Amino acid sequence: MVSAQNIGTVRNASEPAASGPEHVTEPVGYDAILLASFGGPEGQDDVIPFLRNVTRGRGIPDERLEEVAHHYRHFGGVSPINAQNRALKAALETELAARGVDLPVYWGNRNWGPYLSDALREASADGATRLIAIATSAYSSYSSCRQYREDFARELDETGLADTMVIDKVRQYFDHPGFVAPFTQGVADGLAELERRLPGVDLATEAHVLFCTHSIPTGDAVHSGPAARGFGEGGAYAAQHRAVAEVVMARAGRDVPWDLVYQSRSGPPSQPWLEPDVNDALRDLAGRGIKAVLLVPLGFVSDHMEVMWDLDEEATETAEGLGIVSVRTPTPGVDPAYVAGLVDLVLERVHGTPPGERPAETALGPWYDVCRPGCCENARLGFRPAVAGLVP
Description:
Elements: H1 15-18, E1 32-37, H2 47-54, H3 62-73, H4 81-98, E2 105-109, H5 116-125, E3 130-135, H6 142-159, E4 166-169, H7 177-197, H8 203-206, E5 207-214, H9 218-223, H10 235-252, E6 258-263, H11 278-287, E7 292-296, H12 305-321, E8 325-328, H13 336-351
Parallel strand pairs: 1-2, 1-3, 3-4, 5-6, 5-7, 7-8
Family: Belongs to the ferrochelatase family.
GO biological process, one term: heme biosynthetic process
Region (Disordered): 1-23
């Protein structure tokens, strides 16, 4: 039986994690891996029901949802994210088998089938009660970490598995070598491609690298990560992206200026979100005489809708209209280094690896196994029950 959550006790956690250490250094015998993702529609008839799920509780009418739906309808109503997660699940299973790790992988989404509840019921039916979760999001914020943890708690309650199932979660992996390496290679290759397409271009004075990530409300950004770390404006979310971008540029070994920019904002215009928007940044660069831009989707693990629409369509069109040559680098996807890195993160918890032996490419990590109190609050909704972290 899983004990009820008390002050200082982590809900539905394995015994080594239940007392809330920053890093768990005792081995845990997990039964399975839970691959958790956002989900996406797989046909035109799915688009509006999917968007209703994404915006549940906000009272947004269908006519407003249709304004966003055209992104999906442009691609036949099919989001690429589910196919990408099927590929990632298969790649994880292959990597686990190659290492002799006997852990099945169950996949569930927050907003479309297969749902998290489906994955939990399937795992339970197979006799798995101790799960280690991997979310397809590398950074700290409400939507990229705590919301997953809240959804785990809610689905445990709604499926009736809260008294029998444990769900721990791997640490945020923004600076794990397996996540950073594909971006480093992508920047090196992308800058070489810009030189090929613009012979004689001086990258140091005529080019710019834009590291792109999903914008979030500034209120949520301020609350991302533990308040005690004092990350300031943009919170841990912005700090983690900047730290990784610095590492990528240093590893690429090219003297090219760069900035962190944002994309895919939503919500009312009156609500402040992180800026600058990638399109505004492109306009500013054009005004400064920049001829070439490298778009690096640093905030994304795969080429899902925000990458394919907001960067490959909108940002690319903006750059072309401004006379700027742009190249977009790949996301990790199923890059072998990324897949191996995710398995490494699982094995850290299986073996109870001490924090000093865990790889981290920035001074911010290795990040926490058990989220700290007050971490990544939703500024609009406040704190709701969540696993894999201390209350609240």
